[in-house]
Amino acid sequence: GAVVSQHPSWVICKSGTSVKIECRSLDFQATTMFWYRQFPKQSLMLMATSNEGSKATYEQGVEKDKFLINHASLTLSTLTVTSAHPEDSSFYICSARAPQETQYFGPGTRLLVL
Amino acid sequence: KNEVEQSPQNLTAQEGEFITINCSYSVGISALHWLQQHPGGGIVSLFMLSSGKKKHGRLIATINIQEKHSSLHITASHPRDSAVYICAVRSRGAGTASKLTFGTGTRLQVTL
Q: Which A residues in the span 54-113 are in contact with B, Cβ-Cβ below 8 Å?
């Protein structure tokens, strides 16, 4: 089946620094990519929807200046957490939609902000 | 009331048992996904359904559009099936940018 990769798989950073997470669709072109965050024992929460070549659509309550999303190509989207703080510590998951509408998920990135 | 409800929330089974996880939703949908999330966090897409039934190995997924209900069955369960199983629906008519609405998940533990 289709594969979505994320990098890094985990990251620890100091408060105030910025962290970039990459999401790649490895064997298909994804016109739409999604970014989710998940807190322990909770369901996935959609942060934003990203279409290639256009600005991301953010969900209510998600700060677009804090969570910068760039969907540069049909196989790559990046999420940058700017000026990260401990409350941004979470599990971030990207997902890419294949042309036949099946949605594939990345393995996730665990972020810990100290 | 959530748009997507799953039951049970937690399930413990012995190896070899037949397992059923249920999902009910309240909106019109274009597709329903069953996802598996292992303790490490990664999510695997098991099925995407819009009607009928699909089978993959020991996993079977069914959907009844009229009743707004789907089931995921695991035959001959094994400890490696232990994971959280998540039902997610895509609303009908929302276009290609439509988003998934997730259930809260069913935590399955299969013991020896």
A: 57, 91, 93, 95, 97, 101-108, 110
